[in-house]
Design a protein that fits this description.
With about 210 residues, this protein is an alpha/beta fold. The chain contains five helices and eight strands. Strand 1 and strand 2 form a beta hairpin. The C terminus is likely disordered. Bound molecules: zinc ion.
Length: about 210
C-alpha cells in the first residue's frame, strides 16, 4: 500500500493516490505519513547486497522498488592516488556520482519518485528543472512508460534539452527564472515529480554518509 501523506506543520493528512496534492493546503511541503523503521539492529554493512544499489535499503524507504536503472553505490576514489594529484589532505575521497545512469545524483530521487508514480498509476509527471533533475526524471519516466513534461528555462543549453528529448520526454521552455515557472507557482497539473516531493528527499539521504551507497 502506498504511504499516505501528512503535513508536519499543520497535521493535515492526505490519502495516497494519483490525484494527491503536491503540497499541503497550508502551503507546506508534505511528508510520507509512514516511514518504515524495521526492528532490530542496524544492518551490517558487510552483508548489504550492493548489487541492489540504492534499493539495498528498500526496507527503510516508504516507496516500493518499481522503476530502477541500477542506481546507487557509486564508487569512492582516493583523492591523492595519482602521481600528479594536488594535495587534498589525508583521507580525502571523491564520490563519483557522475556514473549514475543519467550522470548525476538526481537519479536517487528519480528512481523513488517514478517508483511511487508507478505505484499510484500516474500517467504523466511534470518536473521543473534547469538541468540534471530534468534529465533524471525524463530518463526514469521513460523507464516507467510514463509521460513526462519538463519545464526548463528558455535559455537552457541545447545539451540539456537533448538529454530530456532523447528519452522521449517533452521539454517546455519558460521565460524567466526557474522560480517563475508554472510548476513552482503551484499552477501545474497534478503530478509527483516536484521539488518538494518527499519521494525526492528520502532516498537522497542514502547518499549522505561515510559509506559508499
Ligand atoms: Zn499543512
Amino acid at each position: 500500500m502506498p504511504s499516505n501523506l501528512s503535513c508536519l506543520d499543520c497535521g493535515r493528512t492526505y490519502d495516497a493516490g494519483p490525484d494527491e496534492p503536491w503540497r499541503c493546503e497550508c502551503g507546506h511541503p508534505l511528508e510520507f505519513a509512514d516511514r518504515p523503521l524495521p526492528d532490530g539492529p542496524a544492518p551490517d554493512f558487510a552483508e548489504i547486497d550492493t548489487r541492489a544499489g540504492l534499493w539495498a535499503f528498500e526496507e527503510f524507504l516508504p516507496v516500493s522498488r518499481r522503476v530502477t536503472l541500477g542506481e546507487g553505490f557509486t564508487p569512492l576514489q582516493d583523492a591523492s592516488s595519482g602521481p600528479n594529484s594536488p594535495d587534498w589532505g589525508e583521507n580525502t575521497q571523491f564520490k563519483l556520482e557522475y556514473v549514475f545512469p543519467s550522470g548525476s545524483f538526481k537519479d536517487r530521487g528519480a528512481t523513488a519518485t517514478l517508483s511511487r508514480a508507478a505505484e499510484l498509476g500516474v500517467e504523466k509527471v511534470v518536473e521543473d528543472s534547469s538541468g540534471n533533475a530534468g534529465a533524471a526524471i525524463a530518463q526514469y519516466a521513460a523507464r516507467a512508460g510514463i509521460e513526462a513534461d519538463v519545464y526548463v528555462p528558455a535559455d537552457a543549453k541545447q545539451s540539456k534539452l537533448a538529454a530530456i528529448e532523447r528519452v522521449g520526454a517533452n521539454p517546455v521552455k519558460v521565460e524567466g527564472s526557474q522560480a517563475g515557472t508554472p510548476a513552482t507557482r503551484g499552477t501545474r497539473p497534478s503530478s509527483l515529480a516536484r521539488p518538494l516531493s518527499p519521494s525526492r528527499s528520502q532516498p537522497s539521504a542514502t547518499g549522505r554518509s561515510r559509506t559508499p551507497w
